[in-house]
Design goal:
mainly alpha, 5 helices, 84% helix, 0% strand, globular, disordered N terminus
């Protein structure tokens, strides 16, 4: 108590001093947490997510199509077109849950099919 009396005058000043230091430490900690937390937590954009899972989605799509008898090259072209078209319609479809994405494709099926059929047909016609 003698040390605190010399440095701070009385115990009330010591408590106020400790509160001031604690509040500064808390504020500093919060600033650091916000700054470093935001820098470390990188949220992926729709494009990042689309590109990250593109090949996996193409493979799954191709597996379904080749099992139904479609040529693997044509299946890849069609799957690629469908994914690109879906992304062009709504870039946020990559963030959708399973049920949401099923509904998205149900709603946009005819649009995607028309675009991809015409694209694939143009490619076939140009290659002949």
């Amino acid at each position: 108590m003698i040390v605190t009396g010399i440095l701070f005058g009385n115990s009330t000043n010591l408590i106020m001093y400790m509160k001031a230091i604690n509040s500064k430490i808390v504020v500093l900690f919060l600033i650091c947490a916000i700054f470093f937390g935001c820098r470390c937590k990188k949220t992926e954009t729709s494009k990042d997510l689309f590109e990250k899972h593109y090949e996996k989605n193409i493979k799954v799509c191709m597996d379904v199509m080749t099992k139904s008898g479609r040529d693997s090259i044509k299946a890849r072209e069609l799957c690629s077109c469908m994914l690109q078209t879906a992304y062009n319609i709504d870039t946020s479809f990559v963030f959708m849950s399973g049920e949401e994405s099923v509904n998205f494709f149900k709603i946009n099926y005819s649009k995607i099919k028309n675009i991809c059929d015409s694209t694939i047909n143009k490619t076939v016609t140009n290659n002949k």
